[in-house]
Amino acid sequence: MYSFKNDYSEGAHPNILKALFESNMEQTEGYGEDKYCMAAIKLLKDKLKRSDVDIHMFCGGTQTNLTAISAFLRPHEAVISANTGHVLVHETGAIEATGHKIISIKVADGKLKPEHIQMAIDEHNDEHMVKPKMVYISNPTEIGTIYKKQELEDLYGFCKKSNIILYIEGARLGSAICSKENDIKFSDLPNLADAFYIGGTKNGALLGEALVICSDFLKEDFRYFIKQKGGLLAKGRLIGIQFLELFKDNIYFDLAKHANDMAELLKISISKYGYLFLIDSPTNQIFPIFPNVTINKLEEKYAFFIWKKVDEENSAIRLVTSWATKEYNVKTFIEDLREDSK
């Protein structure tokens, strides 16, 4: 049984395991103030070409989101999300548990546009309702689509004009940056949002995300919020070491490109056999539509999520490739699909 369920089934890139082992008996400062975290933060600032950003290390995406969003918003303020947004659908009400409502906007492609934000503002127009104060987006989105540079510039420009914070979740940021359709450079990101995070868990790290706060008005006392929300890791070096290894030789982007390449190989072959897709995704998540009988046969050898029922006889599934996906596994899947398509 081979899994295409997610991009975090495997452990970590060997360089990370080697670095963790070699540093294991060193004594360092705690809570992210060790030499490894400091070096990783400096390296990330260099890669982003912005020395004025604040960078904080977290264990996982949900903890990053709930800490950042609750820190950035006042009690009566709300966050706007696409109806597919991770904070809305797959975080067990973590944001609501901090006291902040999520305003859901229905979109077709997973992406929010200025007109969606204006609609939320218009519908929440006095003190009897929550006040929209943040826009949450994911890049890539939860359905694999990506924001182009002009889209982010338009969205951020609208947010600034409307006095609204723009926050980008980057759980699969490497996949977006390395997409063949992408026109955003890694160093563009601090100029396109008030805050964003760089995902490590889904791109070769054992665990870990790096939150980048770009706007000064969001920086004050942020470590207090991390501690209060249980995110200030005593052995913070464990995350710093991983980001140092991922970024010092651009391994981060090599791994993301590999994941995308494996997804593209699947996509090309599935298309060649005449199957359609629920959405056109240029990243490491693809959503082919197969007959249910074909899905049942594939499930005998492969694990994946059935994403959406299309009609009585067909469903869309989600196939996710990772930094560790071998071409052999992809080609085996393709061959099994070919046999079933005869």
Structural commentary:
The chain has 13 helices and 13 strands. It has a 7-stranded mixed beta sheet with strand order 2-8-7-6-5-3-4, sandwiched between helices. It has helices at 14-22, 35-48, 61-72, 86-89, 94-97, 114-123, 149-161, 173-177, 222-228, 237-248, 251-272, 292-298, 327-341; strands spanning 2-3, 54-58, 77-82, 102-105, 131-138, 165-169, 195-199, 209-213, 285-286, 289-291, 302-303, 305-309, 314-320. The chain is of the alpha/beta class and 342 residues long. The two termini are 23 Å apart. The longest helix has 22 residues, at 251-272. Helix content is 39%, strand content 17%. It is globular, with a radius of gyration of 20 Å.
Fold topology:
Elements: E1 2-3, H1 14-22, H2 35-48, E2 54-58, H3 61-72, E3 77-82, H4 86-89, H5 94-97, E4 102-105, H6 114-123, E5 131-138, H7 149-161, E6 165-169, H8 173-177, E7 195-199, E8 209-213, H9 222-228, H10 237-248, H11 251-272, E9 285-286, E10 289-291, H12 292-298, E11 302-303, E12 305-309, E13 314-320, H13 327-341
Secondary-structure content class: alpha/beta
Q: Numbering strands along the chain, what is their spatial order in the largest sheet? A: 2-8-7-6-5-3-4
- Helices and strands, in N-to-C order? EHHEHEHHEHEHEHEEHHHEEHEEEH
Q: How far apart, in Å, are the first and last alpha carbons?
A: 23 Å
